[in-house]
Amino acid sequence: MGPWRCLLLLPLLAAALRAQQQQFMEYVERRLTLLEERISQWHDQSSRYSTELRDFKNQVLGMLEAAEKEREAMRSEAESAAVRMDRLEREVDYLETQNPAPPCVEVDETLMEKQVATAKQRKNEKYTKLTDCSHTIASIRAMKILKRFGSTSGLWTKDAAGNSEKIYVFDGTANDTVYVFPRMREFTLFSATRKAARIKLPYPWVGTGHLVYDGHLYYIRQQGPFQVIKFNLANKTVVDSSVFPAEEQIPVFGLSPFTYIEVAADEEGLWAIYATKEDEKNICLAKLDPTSLDIEQMWDTPCPRENAEGAFVVCGALHVVYNTRLPSRSRVQCVFDVSGTLAPEDASLVYFPKRYGSHSSMKYSPRERQIYAWDDGYQIIYRMEMKKKLEV
């Protein structure tokens, strides 16, 4: 091919190259245009999503504010209801106090005849007070819940006569091991019994009518006849025992069927609270000699067994605790003074504060003038407000 022909082909090649470049530029422009459209769509969608998210956030914040307002309103209503409930309980207490059941401080003629006959048999025409105790319970000054320990039924107490700070715990209504804590602090702070000494009794006990008095434990033997055991806590030996001379005994408290004899202590000494088939409707009381366990004198009281859950003696006056109409409430509803020095209008029908269940034991401490109670597994102290008796 000659030179003149190459010169003829050069313009054709240049035109073809320009056409390809033009097509490539048009392709790139189209792609860029599509990319810009997609970026614009993404931007629009992102803006829309951001707006929707902001609106949803504002909606949620509004709902949270409304929920918080409703929660505050409900809390305010609950507090108001609690205040009204407390006011209602105080009003009910006031009404029941103003309209109490008649105190059982006087004995009717038939019971008096029985008492006279019993007194003649015991060669005691009249009960002679051993002390100048002239006080009676006015009200519950304070209630303190110590802890929850052991079974629903049991007993805890101090020595009613000595100065020891030891705490004695009887877990359950049928056992043979007593837990002894050195002080109240160890009993309160530790949930386990690792800080307590253990005393294994020669015979298992029954009920919750035990008593620690002047270094000795008085308890009711579980098997056989109803035998009061006097156990020396220092040398761990049985000092004495006595079969209670009441035939066909029945539970002394209608709401505590596991207790047949309640051994109690007050400023006058030792007492036994019991019931018999002969007079199964009412509770009986006996004065015990702490040394020999002999019965010095016996009384048939007018205090009924029905709905009774516990009892204690203060200054020679038996106080029986009953349930009331309201759940988990109880009060002293019957008072029987063996010396006859307590005027009827002076017998306070004491209310116990709202509790967990029912008292399985109530032990009065004459030295501290407070009651150690066991309530559905909780150990409670009731501090008593005392007043002078208005003697008849």
TrEMBL record:
<keyword id="KW-0217">Developmental protein</keyword>
<dbReference type="GO" id="GO:0007165">
    <property type="term" value="P:signal transduction"/>
</dbReference>
<feature type="signal peptide">
    <location>
        <begin position="1"/>
        <end position="19"/>
    </location>
</feature>
<dbReference type="InterPro" id="IPR003112">
    <property type="entry name" value="Olfac-like_dom"/>
</dbReference>
<keyword id="KW-1015">Disulfide bond</keyword>
<keyword id="KW-0325">Glycoprotein</keyword>
<dbReference type="InterPro" id="IPR050605">
    <property type="entry name" value="Olfactomedin-like_domain"/>
</dbReference>
<keyword id="KW-0732">Signal</keyword>
<protein>
    <submittedName>
        <fullName>OLFL3 protein</fullName>
    </submittedName>
</protein>
<comment type="similarity">
    <text>Belongs to the OLFML3 family.</text>
</comment>
<dbReference type="GO" id="GO:0005615">
    <property type="term" value="C:extracellular space"/>
</dbReference>
<keyword id="KW-0175">Coiled coil</keyword>
<feature type="coiled-coil region">
    <location>
        <begin position="57"/>
        <end position="98"/>
    </location>
</feature>
<dbReference type="Pfam" id="PF02191">
    <property type="entry name" value="OLF"/>
</dbReference>
<keyword id="KW-0964">Secreted</keyword>
<feature type="domain" description="Olfactomedin-like">
    <location>
        <begin position="132"/>
        <end position="388"/>
    </location>
</feature>
<feature type="disulfide bond">
    <location>
        <begin position="133"/>
        <end position="315"/>
    </location>
</feature>
